[in-house]
What we know:
mainly alpha, Alpha-Beta Plaits, elongated, 8 helices
Amino acid sequence: MKIRLLYFTLLVSTLLMGIKFLGYWLTHSDAILTDASESIVNVVAGAFALFSLYLAHKPKDENHPYGHGKIEFLSAGVEGLLICLAGFIMIGKATYSIFSPPALQKIDLGVWLTAFSTLVNWVMGEYLIQQGKRHSSLTLQADGKHIRSDAHSSLGLLIGLAMMYFTHWYWLDVVLTLLFAGLIIYTGYGLIREAVSGVLDEANEAIIGKIIDILNQNRQDEWIDVHNLRVIQYGRDLHVDCHATFPYYWDLHRVHDEVRTLEQVMEKVQAYPVEVFIHADPCLPPASCAVCQQQKCPVRQQPIALRLDWTLENVRLNQKHNT
């Protein structure tokens, strides 16, 4: 479904690019040209996003034991770089036009063509972002943000063209171009920042927070402690590992069953694949006794002192919880 959606997006972006270049040919407006130039980036980035999404959905193999999902971060980063490149090209063209202003014409046609492309891009961008969130796809979200930023700049361009048409303040063409360039570069930087965070496995506190909430909701008295919780994202798939503390006197079968139960709880964090690895630790009396919630522990050496809440601050620490 996601690949078909990107095919359709690529087709529409190509048609809109043609409409924008037609608008430039009719009006000779640099602002429209820069908007059309960004559409070239839309098409190139859309094609790369389509390839990366295809690759991300390939199954795991011997050479890629964690799958191919990381390609989505690369796709988002490349798209961000292309967006920034388009912004800097716009600045260069606007600077040139200050010294050699073009002769503008047929601004009214430019208004109508820009209005049409703005509406289509806005609807398409919002839909891609929503589908990207629904399917946990950074590629769809990045492509949607790119197209939506194109709609934002086109909306500003539309307002500027209307002002030029009614006031004949043609110097606004350069001002609008510079403003749109700044907006586009800012959007591109945001995508690059998000992609680099994913490649470097920066902690995603939102996902970790969801896992902690699920653990607290399903917490069992025998789960004495959970710590050193880490999450790595591979496209839509998640790899979660942590340490869990259980009573030291349990046999291996009991520990295995409890670890599997804990894994199944964590797998509920999203509808897409979640791979969980848990390292089982034995409790260490008497320090562990103070936070162990078992009412009938046969080897308890201290009374229960408190019930520790599992939070974003303490679950990520690589140390057992105690008082």
